[in-house]
Amino acid sequence: MGTTKGRAQVILKGAKNDEDWQKWVEWEQPQHTVELSEYTISRFPIINREYQAFVRDTKHNPPRGWDGDQFPVEKGTHPVVNVSWDDAVAYCKWLSEKRGKSYRLPTEAEWEKAACGKDGRIYPWGDKFDPRNANTSETKLGGTSEVGQFSPQGDSPYGCMDMAGNVWEWCHDWFNENEYKNRAGKNVKDPQGPPQGKVRVLRGGSFNDSRKDVRCAGRFRRPPLNSDHDRGFRIVSSSKTLKKSAD
User: Could you give phi then psi for residue 50, rounded to 5 degrees?
Assistant: First the structure.
């Protein structure tokens, strides 16, 4: 997980006057190894059509931009957006009860492994950015795209789509800027982040973001009640029970 010191220097070389970027890249260091229990992750973010079933079944408040429980008609296979961390967790709970199987948000470590595999690559497809592989600001679509539009060339080693760009994806973990430093030199299995906090982790970048933001190691954070036009999520199924975290 994370970014090596050498790669961090290359990244920061292109952002000399950006204090935020200098801080964000520090959050990704040091690069370290973690061990994960087996899990299954959805190949693409939850789409509007899937989220609609949840909204209709539970009477959950629909995302902004919908007409009641109806998403924009041309966006059925686009990732759902304008959803908070709490909305995403509510969806997972509903789906678990519906299918009789446990679903949840991925931990930050689970998300990153699904995105880059075991070799620490920069992007899901390799180390060189290519605007033909992801929906980013360089692609200039200006909004969400149909899931799989950049498949298979933009897929991760495990066949996951849209893990770079399209929408930011909520993770289970509370965010701590020193999380990686605290793990340094330790044998870590199934990390779940700190037990409490004020902001949750988001991963992957979106259509609004550049090549710097959509790297597999990139980390972002927002309050769990925050929702926006480029926030979505994907889900995980695993026998691993996560610790309960304080709100």
Answer: -70, -40
pLDDT on residue 22: 74
* Domain harbouring 182, CATH code: 3.90.1580.10
Residue 38 reports pLDDT greater than 60: yes
For residue 7, tell me if it sits in a domain. no
Domain containing residue 221: 37-237
Asked whether 219 and 108 are in contact (CB, 8 A), the reply is: yes
Q: Scan for tokens 């964000």, then name that residue.
A: 24
Choose among 159, 158, 160: nearest CA to 169: 160
**β-strand pairing of 200-203 with 188-189:** unpaired
For residues 168 and 207, what is the distance between their CA atoms, to the nearest angstrom?
A: 9
**CB-CB contact of 227 with 209 (8 Å):** no
The pLDDT assigned to 242 comes to: 76
DSSP assignment, residue 104?
Answer: B
- The tally of domains found in the chain comes to 1
**H helix runs in 100-176, sequence order:** 108-116
Q: What angle do CA 225, 230, 173 make, to 5 degrees?
A: 50
Q: Which has the minimum average pLDDT: 16-20, 61-65, 85-89, 161-165?
A: 16-20
pLDDT(135) > 60: yes
